[in-house]
Amino acid sequence: MDFERLNGDIKEMRRRNRGLALTVGLLAAAHVLALVVILNLLGTVRTAAPCPPRPSPPAATARPTSSA
What is the 3-state secondary structure (H, E, C) of 13-38? Predict the structure, then answer.
């Protein structure tokens, strides 16, 4: 067996695994952050004060008709 080559291979695999673990950690953190943002948005929509009623349109005034 070539222990030098195998030792280099295992070091390379460990280095690659650290990079993959960091990537997975960052993706998991991004998912958690997105979930927090979504839940905050849902909370603000549910607890927001209702909109004030719209003002009614002005009453229509009758136009005087000319009688000829």
Answer: HHHHHHHHHHHHHHHHHHHHHHHHHH
pLDDT digits (tens, 9 = 90+) for 7-46: 889 999 999 999 999 999 999 999 999 999 999 988 876 6
Q: What residue type is 6 in one-letter code? A: L
Q: How far apart are CA 43 and CA 45, in angstroms?
A: 5
Contacts of 31 (CB under 8 A, 6+ apart): none
Give the closest residue to 11 by CA, choosing from 24, 21, 3, 22: 3
DSSP codes of every residue in 49-60: PPPPPPPPPPPP
> What is the rounded CA–CA span in Å between residue 22 and residue 26?
6
